[in-house]
Write a structure and sequence with these properties.
One of its GO terms (biological process) is mitochondrial proton-transporting ATP synthase complex assembly. The chain is an alpha+beta fold and 247 residues long. Helix content is 57%, strand content 9%. It contains eleven helices and six strands.
């Protein structure tokens, strides 16, 4: 069910043998497959608990993105291992949104160059790879060395974080935008805007359905933000602390 009447009063977290658990009153939260809902970091547990605590009289499960991501990581319904998750993420390079360009109309082509070229250039410099772009329906020819570099980069993340990275990629339809976001090079708002560039162009030109556009935009931002937060909260604490100290 997408909605349900709230059946608990208090939400708390506790530390168990396998990690941090979520308590709804005196009952321990479980996954859809009946596994004990246990997360690897206290920060993630607090974030999930906040999600449950913020639900009003009627629980809206479709707004609980962090809980959903944790359930996916715990139940692993597709039964994929780390290598399979990495290769699935890198495969998105072949159809990456920011690599596919139009030639007409000229205004949109120019907009794509102005907005997408900088993020592609950043990724090429950041990871020392060649990506490029193409107006062909076949897309750019991504070198094998570029794919191997991204495979190595993603291998530095744990399985939980990789679930979050793939989730962000599927929302943005772009590995490049996702890595820019997770690397804190661009904001959630910027990543979403760049992923919807053609749609935003058409809206500026032709107008939009007043409420539908704003709703879709807010929903996408919420999902992308949750995915990025999930990745950071699932990363090794020492790595997170090191990156924060660098910033």
């Amino acid at each position: 069910p997408l909605e349900r009447k709230r059946f608990y009063q208090n939400v708390s977290i506790s530390q168990g043998e396998g990690g941090f658990e979520i308590n709804l009153d005196h009952r321990k939260l479980k996954t859809p497959q009946g596994k004990l809902f246990t997360v690897p970091s206290e920060a993630l547990a607090i974030a999930v608990a906040t999600e449950w605590d913020s639900q009003k009289d009627t629980m809206k499960f479709y707004t609980m993105h962090l809980t959903t991501l944790c359930n996916t990581a715990l139940d692993n319904p597709t039964q994929r291992n780390k290598t399979q998750l990495i290769r699935a993420a890198v495969k998105f390079l072949e159809t990456d949104t920011v690599c596919y360009r139009v030639e007409e109309p000229g205004a949109l082509a120019e907009l794509q160059r102005n907005e997408w070229d900088p993020i592609v250039a950043w990724a090429e410099k950041r990871y020392n790879v060649k990506i490029g772009s193409s107006t062909s329906i076949l897309g750019p020819n991504i070198p094998a060395s570029t794919k191997e570099t991204f495979i190595s980069q993603l291998a530095s993340y744990n399985v939980w974080a990789l679930q979050g990275i793939e989730y962000v990629i599927t929302q943005l339809k772009s590995l490049i935008l996702s890595m820019g976001l997770i690397d804190r090079h661009i904001t959630v708002e910027k990543a979403v805007l760049l992923s919807r560039l053609e749609e935003e162009y058409q809206i500026q030109r032709w107008g939009n359905v007043e409420w539908a556009h704003d709703y879709d935009l807010c929903e996408l931002r919420a999902r992308v933000a949750a995915g990025a937060l999930f990745v950071h909260l699932c990363s090794e604490s020492s790595t997170v602390k090191h990156k924060l100290l660098q910033d």
